[in-house]
Write a structure and sequence with these properties.
Number of domains of chain B: 1
Number of strands of chain B: 0
Shape of chain A: elongated
Radius of gyration of chain B: 20 Å
Radius of gyration of chain A: 20 Å
Structural class of chain B: mainly alpha
Number of helices of chain A: 5
Shape of chain B: elongated
Distance between the termini of chain B: 14 Å
Helix content of chain A: 55-70%
Oligomer: heterodimer
CATH class of chain B: Mainly Alpha
């Protein structure tokens, strides 16, 4: 989970960095950060919980985009380029950290459409009484 | 019926227990209170709005074109959304993942779009209006924090629906929690 706390903070940092690092006038750069920042923070926060830990991987394409953005969008500010690439590399790397899963979830999301999963096997073992 | 028997098969805990649900309900109520305050400003009940960090930011955002796109201000829509989330979190007992899947699935689906719209509005603030609104950011954070903990319960309900399907019991009756299908599938 620590990795996704860091990613949430990196997303918030992106929202604030233009004002802190002093390139607020560069509209393309700041727009890019103000769009990517909230998305990264949201996906990171959703993946704090074990049942939705898989959402961390949605941040991989966003992180990779931050690595490419300075070249695709033609950043003319070195600080912003370094910031975007550094945050992009960190977010991408941290997104792959799965962390400990201590609870059991009946086989997870794939068990909703797959057959013979943990929850189905466990349910078969239980006596089928009239549970009102 | 013991609390252990309320745990879904193949799970280590019950995602529909009150300990799991109450924090989400409290978060939704806080969201409701803040959104109501912002809506009252937008409806001109209050002349000023609390803004500790971004100067005229809150006023700019809350009176912007985007906030008035719909017949009622976006703050009021948010308040309704949080109220629906809080209600959907409170209704039903600790076995509701199988006794009333409709409310659990509705709860999961209500939390999702509210979070999505909040994040979209957070993006639009600086991109379209070059300003931020502190309380709007706070409500967005609340709606994003609610998504994760609401999803585990929905997962338990969806797995139950899968077992209902495999047992060839009516999905419709199980979804609405008809008495006649209760207990036929665990």
């Amino acid at each position: 989970m620590w990795a996704h706390v860091l990613n949430a903070l990196l997303g918030i940092w992106l929202m604030a960095s233009a004002a802190i690092l002093g390139y607020s006038d560069a509209k393309t750069i700041t727009d890019n950060e103000h769009i990517a920042g909230p998305i990264i923070a949201s996906f990171a926060i959703i993946s704090w919980w074990e049942a939705t830990r898989v959402v961390r991987l949605y941040n991989v394409p966003v992180g990779l985009w931050l690595l490419l953005a300075p070249w695709v969008l033609g950043f003319d500010n070195t600080t912003a380029t370094v910031n975007s690439m550094l945050v992009g590399a960190l977010v991408t790397g941290l997104s792959f950290v799965k962390g400990k899963i201590k609870d059991v979830y009946g086989g997870g999301w794939s068990a909703v459409w797959k057959s013979d999963t943990l929850h189905a096997r466990e349910a078969r073992k239980q006596p089928r009484t009239n549970l009102k | 019926m013991s609390k252990e028997e309320a745990i879904p098969p193949g799970w280590s805990y019950n995602p529909a227990s009150w300990g799991q649900r109450m924090p989400i309900v409290v978060a939704a109520m806080v969201g409701f209170a803040i959104a109501t305050y912002l809506a009252l400003f937008q409806l001109k009940v209050f002349d000023t709005v609390w803004e500790p960090f971004f100067g005229d930011g809150s006023r700019k955002i809350l009176t912007s074109k985007t906030s008035q796109m719909l017949p009622i201000p976006d703050g009021a829509l948010g308040a309704i959304g949080y109220l629906v989330d809080a209600l959907a979190g409170v209704i039903g007992g600790i076995r509701r993942w199988r006794t009333m899947p409709w409310i659990v699935i509705a709860f999961g689906l209500a939390v999702g779009p509210l979070g999505f719209v909040s994040v979209l509005l957070v993006i639009l603030q600086p991109v379209l209006y070059d300003s931020w609104c502190t309380l709007c950011l706070a409500t967005a954070l609340i709606s994003v924090v609610m998504i994760g903990p609401a999803m585990d319960e929905m997962l338990a309900s969806l797995q139950y629906m899968k077992r209902v399907k495999e047992a060839k019991v009516s999905l419709w009756k199980a979804f609405w929690g008809y008495k006649e299908v209760q207990g036929r599938v665990i």
